[in-house]
Amino acid sequence: MSSVAPVRSSDDGSGPARRAGRAVGRALHLPARGIRRATHAHGAGESGLGKLIELHAINGAGDVMITVALASTVFFSVPTDEARGRVALYLAITMAPFTVLAPVIGPLLDRLPHGRRAAMAASMLARALLALLMSGAVATGGIELYPAALGVLVASKAYGVVRSAVVPRLLPPKFSLVKANSRVTLAGLLATGAAAPVGAALHLIGPPWPLYGACVIFVWGAFAAFTLPHKVDEAKGERRARLSTHEAHSKRPGLRTVSRSVLCGLLANASMRALSGFLIFFLAFLLREHPVAGQSAAVSLGIVGVSAGVGNACGTAVGAWLRARAPEAIVAAVLCLTLGVAVLAAVFFSALFMAVLAATAGFCQALAKLSLDAMIQRDVPEAVRTSAFARSETLLQVAWVLGGAIGIVLPLNGVLGMSVAAAIVALGTTMALRGVLSAPRPHHPGTTRPRVA
After folding, report:
1. pLDDT tens for residues 308-367?
2. What is the full DSSP assignment across 171-221?
3. Of 212, 209, 106, whose CA–CA distance to 160 is shortest?
């Protein structure tokens, strides 16, 4: 009898439990294999780009967890007037110092060419620690929350600058930089969309829980950063690029001396990034005060947010598919399109046009950024290309901050807001058209236009 007892016990409990565990493992293993197959396709696995795609997805998931926690504390948990004051305080304590620190991030990281993996891991660990520190203050909204949020912002942007510099090192054979950045960006967007509802569900348990989730994700990301190939840390033959070089004979080329069209494309992208920051802050308060008819403020914000996210994802997907032989023309076209929609939104202001403008801005911003990447790949020498990516990304982040500052101080008037949005895009459109006029002609004698995608 004693010899058959273990068999009976296994059948009653441990056997089914073990089989259920194996079934769950198989259910999770199949999606994981599918994700790995997608991220490592077309040589991305062999070159190491697949690892960077996965790392950027982890980064996006962690950032959105912190965003959910901060939004619930700074914005949704208090009346509109108090929320506006809190967001203004958030901008003053986090964004204002960031505008000073951001220009330093690129040059500082330029001095760490042999430690890019360590820099990305450090940015992840810093955010994991800061998430834990914020978990104690997120429920009360205490003043100590804001310096920690500043640290998270700086660490996040430092990761973004390093990631932009790393991508050219991991290109598979016959793989364009446009396509590589499209894959990386799309992975981040998909991870953000998947993690946002998880963060919202964790917030139902308690305000600190999204931050606990962010801590776990960022610790995972710190380990994942060191799985990137060692060539990420190689800097043989690299030099630093300058954005303000005037001397045409300079031995250290900058974006101006290399290509006027690159500089115009960068300034045009800066206007799109400023528009993004402006719309986030302005529409957040406008829709909270005047939600879409028949909908709550949260649902109204969700409609606009989903529109922008879908537009951005579609723009990234189109960028990966489009064979962009004339990136200057693409930048000019998408800015003209955004300008036209912004003008229509100002003239025929309505909830529908706000959603359309958000979707258009997301779509066009993605295509404009990918086209800027193509111009840098085409015109900036390899010796300073990674540095150029770092400097351009820093400038774009500063533009986002400035756009957000305009959005928070502007009166909550829809027509006025859309008019300001149109003015921001108009400045960028002017620079984009100048970039088209200054672009090298493919049939000009002695001029060749390298293939960029």
Report:
1. 888 888 888 887 776 556 788 889 999 999 999 999 999 988 888 888 999 999 999 988
2. PPTT--HHHHHHHHHHHHHHHHHHHHHHHHHHHHH-TTHHHHHHHHHHHHH
3. 106
